[in-house]
Amino acid sequence: MASSNAIPIFFLLALLFGASSAQLSETFYDRTCPRLPNIVRAAVKKAIETDIRAGAKLIRLHFHDCFVNGCDGSVLLEDAPGIVSELNSPGNQGIQGLEIVDAIKAAVESECPNTVSCADILAQASKDSVDVQGGPSWRVLYGRRDSRIANKTGADSGLASPFETLVQLKKKFSDVGLGTTDLVALSGAHTFGRSRCRFFSHRFANFNNTGRPDPSLDANYRGFLQGVCSAGPDTRANFDPTTPDVFDKNYYTNLQAGKGLLQSDQELFSTAGADTIAIVNSFAAREGTFFKEFRQSMINMGNIKPLTGSRGEIRKNCRRVNSAMGGEGHDVM
Ligand SMILES: *[C@@H]1O[C@H](CO)[C@@H](O)[C@H](O)[C@H]1NC(C)=O
Ligand SMILES: *[C@@H]1O[C@H](CO)[C@@H](O)[C@H](O)[C@H]1NC(C)=O
């Protein structure tokens, strides 16, 4: 009888291991890089000390990574033979922070060479950026591998634009399996960081061919922003005029006051009859509610179509695929 039981147990184990190689897990690097969370956190803190915008840059990279072919580090690949970089897609205009990723990756490589993917580094660094600046913390899931391709056409069609309507934004989220609560919660990352005037100055006059400014933009705030933007379209304004560098719920109280910076921010609250209004109100009322949903939505986003098991690779240099010869990508930087 014992021997006939052995077969089902074997199959059960095979199933479990099979499943774990296709899923992300908190313990993925426990044996191969146990200090990973500490290494990344220290590097993120150091980056934020010299550049207060570092956290916002890192989380944007993770977000734009996950929305194109899943969280596979594809956003980080630069133009190269056979690679058409996603960085040149309109949705990635002005994206920054690759040198911050390089610094984090170098710190990780020195302790755990050829072990940790760039996609996992973006996920961990995003969590650290949020909690270093006052937001929630959570247990990051790991086990993503890096793509050997970029998908610029995927970036062109999949990344959200500040000029889109709520219906279009919802569609882009649902295309990657994310819902309305994810959209509202993840937009809350605009509680820190900056945006350039070229992405919102169309709201100042003749908005949507109406001959008038965007009616959902508070008039005093509009006047303030016009002053900021008189310095030119590449001038930056804070996403959150109240606490620009703190991760808090003020993004939502700003929306209630008509002080969302981008059209795509304010639509969450100002689109008539939208189901997002009640979610904005609940996040504005209680920071704990926002933090809880944000944590969950970051995990949901981090789970989008990861490359796992033996697919993809562990990139040595986050900006390019490993070379076929030598495997580990001999750096010629
Ligand atoms: C690129 O992205 C598009 C849109 O998501 C998708 O249909 C296409 O299969 C992707 N191409 C590759 C090579 O992954
Ligand atoms: C702009 O106008 C079009 C046509 O009137 C309308 O369908 C669309 O919802 C408007 N967009 C915004 C953001 O108000």
Word description of this protein:
The protein has 333 residues and is mainly alpha-helical. The protein has two domains: 26-158, Peroxidase, domain 1, CATH 1.10.520.10; 178-300, Peroxidase, domain 2, CATH 1.10.420.10. Helices cover 47% and strands 2% of the residues. It contains 13 helices and two strands, in the order H-H-H-H-H-H-H-H-E-H-E-H-H-H-H. It has helices at 2-22, 36-50, 54-66, 98-111, 118-132, 152-158, 166-175, 180-187, 219-229, 250-256, 263-270, 276-285, 287-302; strands spanning 194-196, 236-238. The radius of gyration is 21 Å and the shape is globular. Bound molecules: 2-acetamido-2-deoxy-beta-D-glucopyranose (2 copies).
Task: Describe the structure using short key phrases.
mainly alpha; Peroxidase, domain 1; Peroxidase, domain 2; two-stranded antiparallel sheet; 47% helix; globular; disordered N terminus; disordered C terminus; binds 2-acetamido-2-deoxy-beta-D-glucopyranose; glycoprotein; disulfide bond
Residue windows where pLDDT falls under 50 for at least 5 positions: 1-21, 326-333
Output mean pLDDT.
92
End-to-end separation in angstroms reads: 63 Å
Bound molecules: 2-acetamido-2-deoxy-beta-D-glucopyranose
Site (Transition state stabilizer): 60
GO molecular function, one term: heme binding
Catalytic activity: 2 a phenolic donor + H2O2 = 2 a phenolic radical donor + 2 H2O
Binding site for Ca(2+) 2: 191, 240, 243, 248
